[in-house]
Amino acid sequence: MEEYQTSQQAVLAQQSELDDVSSKAQALLETNSDARISHSITQLTTKYQALLSASKELLNKLETHCNDHRRYQVAAQDYESWLHGMQDKMAALQSTAGTKDELEGRLTRLRELQTSLDQGHAKLRTTIDQGERLMPTTNQAGCDVIQSDLDRYKEAYEALRVSLTDSKSGLEATVAHWLNFERMFEQLSAWIKETEMRVKSDSDLKTDLAEKKAHLEKIKILHKDIEQHEGQRDTLQDKTSELSEPVTQATVSDIVNRYGTLRDDTATMLAELSTQVSEHEQYREGYKQTMDWVIGTRQKLQHLTDATGSKEEMQTKLNKLEELKSSFPEGETQYTTTHDLSDKTLTHTSMPGRDRVRQEMALLKEEFDGLQSLSGEAHGTLQASILSLEEFEQENIQFTSWLQEAEDKVKVTSQQFELHAPEQ
Question: Is the full-model pTM beyond 0.90?
Fold first, then answer.
């Protein structure tokens, strides 16, 4: 363009030369009317004017072409400036790490950037239009460069659009993941807090076996519910690892530890309550069996306390009593076992229940001691009765023997008296 402007100035500079030649031709025509001179100067002037006009037109075209190039460059620079600005902004917003608030802030800015795509597309369209306008007046090498640049601009815009969409989708997914995580975290936290309160609120000692069994069933159901929440705990841990947020991981670690403590505590409670119920059942069964044995033995003993009848009947009763007393060690063993079980039961029973167990054991001991006293009394009574009968029989035999002897003596004496008596 500058080179041709210099050429244009050179053409314009020849105007004075043409004017000089034309003046000389006019002067010559005053003395020489040769038509060739007039024709020659006219032809020369016409060619010069045609050259000047063509030069001006070409210069105008070159100016237009240069202006088109400038507009293309300005449009391209404007587009590239917008593109680089968008790329820099987006690069700072692509990370999916951080808190939910940070992610939501990035997502809001990404959405704002997404609304700028239309502006960028308009800049791209302007650049493409300016570039395509240059094509007809640009050589092949220049056209190739322009086309390469335009293709690169299009690809960069499309890559930006796709990257922006992907980044937005990634952040939206991560925010949704956060929301889901927070929902699960709140649910699990609330459930753990409620369950901890339920466990603590029902930790008092129970009064009787029925209450202990009911408490055991309640803890079984509670422990099963805790185990069923293990999947929710695992899911929460998985979601936490995906978030890669240290503060969140520490918070979840606390919840996971509380869950583990809750599960272990209820498992321990189950084992302890099962033992308590088993010991209380054994005590109840032992108490029932011992009391049944005392009552049954007392009933048998009552049939042996009647000290009436013959010596043989008394001896039969005494033999049965001895046989019955031979079972007392077994009963005493039952009582001792029951007493030991009652001591174990007292350790996990409330005060009202302890009083009841102590009363039961006091009654059982009273019944057991009474049975032993009754058996001793019956044994003494039967032995005394038998001894009395034996003494009676001995004395009866002795007296009967004496009486018989006396009767015999009287009879003999009477007979002798009658034999020696004088006849009347």
Answer: no
